[in-house]
Amino acid sequence: MKNTQKFFLPLFLALSLFLSGCAQLQPSPSFSLADVPDFSDEPYVILNENQPNFPEEDFTTDSFESYSPLDLLGRCGAAYANVGLDTMPTEERGEIGQIKPSGWHTVKYDCVDGKYLYNRCHLIGYQLTAENANEENLITGTRYMNVVGMLPFENEVADYVQETGNHVLYRVTPIFEGTNLVADAVQMEAKSVEDEGEGVCFNVYVYNAQPGVAINYANGESWLADEEPTDSVSNSSPEPSAEEAYILNTKSMKFHRPDCSGAASMSEVNRQEYTGSRETLISEGYTPCGQCKP
User: Fold this and answer.
1) Whole-angstrom Cα distance, residue 237 to residue 107?
2) Statement: residue 11 has pLDDT above 90
3) How far apart are CA 78 and CA 83, in angstroms?
4) Can you name the residues that pair with 201 across neighbouring β-strands?
5) Which residues is 202 bridged to in the sheet?
6) How far is Cα 281 from Cα 260, in angstroms, rounded to an integer?
7) What pLDDT score was predicted for residue 265?
8) DSSP summary character for residue 150
9) Residue 214 DSSP SS3
10) Measured between alpha carbons, how far is 96 from 109 in angstroms, rounded to an integer?
11) Furthest C-alpha separation in the chain
């Protein structure tokens, strides 16, 4: 009986830490989700009478920006900046294809502008803070959310700053339900500093949705809205849910890519080879290596 307790206790602790870590790194939004209507082909709804919720001490003419570390599921948190002329880019945007946000799938539909359902969506647009291939600033977002929902607000802030030279407090928070890998929406807040919101002021909930397409936010799989979902979506690359090879550390409860240096130096006593899905490992209490980020 004592040996059994010794075996199960580390697993129980790992699961407890994993679940509590998710709760801590994905705080509740500053509004009630129960008050947000279901998506109905409108890109966003207004929150709190369009008034953002920034602390008074942040209304400064000193530019800043900060990005939340990825949580235990590899998901982004809030991105926050005081946008000024000095935070804006001075060179062309580079490639971001090497970043794979949580829930990422490569999916095409004829009903989507540009065919691809998902974009690598910047929480704070490149035109505002020049952050490009920053994994803490990129989420899996629909083309509709990225271009129809978010871009007009980003342009409003960029145009104001460029025209006035003033600053804008700007925060974008992805809204994840439970342990879903794809955000239901993003909350976008902004308020101009020098004129106390006369130039820019908004607080909106932008739906991560695509007209004509249904999405499983738990893992990012999708299908045409007028069709029944299937076990395997033929036009979706099997990325997060595909079986892959990993190296497990049964002591630390972390999993690694086979070519990770952490896997190479791992004690054989704790080393275990595994082929399967990433989601299964996470559900069993394992967490991804912070170095190779499998």
Assistant:
1) 7
2) no
3) 15
4) 191
5) 190
6) 17
7) 85
8) I
9) strand
10) 22
11) 72
Cβ neighbors of 123 (< 8 A, separation 6 or more) are 67, 76, 78, 79, 137, 138, 139, 172, 174, 186
- Please tell me the distance from the alpha carbon of residue 127 to that of residue 81, in angstroms, as a whole number: 13
Give exposure, 198-223, as e/b (b: 16+ Cβ within 10 Å).
ebbbbbbbbbbbbeebebbbebbbbb
pLDDT digits (tens, 9 = 90+) for 46-88: 999 999 999 999 999 999 999 999 999 999 999 999 999 999 9
CATH for the stretch 31-224: 3.40.570.10
Q: What pLDDT digit, counting tens, does each position of 190-248 carry? A: 999 999 999 999 999 999 999 999 999 999 999 999 887 765 444 444 444 457 888 98
Q: Quickly state the pLDDT bin for 255 (edges 50, 70, 90).
A: confident
Mapped onto helix, strand or coil, the DSSP state of residue 94 is coil
**CATH code 3.40.190.10 for 243-294:** no
Cβ contact 256:263 at 8 Å? yes
Could you state, in order of their start, the residue ranges of all structural domains in the chain? 31-224, 243-294
Q: Count of CB atoms within 10 A of residue 59's CB?
A: 16
The residue to which tokens 């299937």 are assigned: 230
Is 276 within 8 Å of 243 (Cβ atoms)?
A: yes
pLDDT tens digits, 97-109: 899 999 999 999 9
Helices of type H across the chain: 2-25, 126-129, 143, 151-164, 261-264, 278-283
Residue 6 per-residue DSSP state: H
CA distance 54 to 50: 13
The DSSP call for residue 110 is T
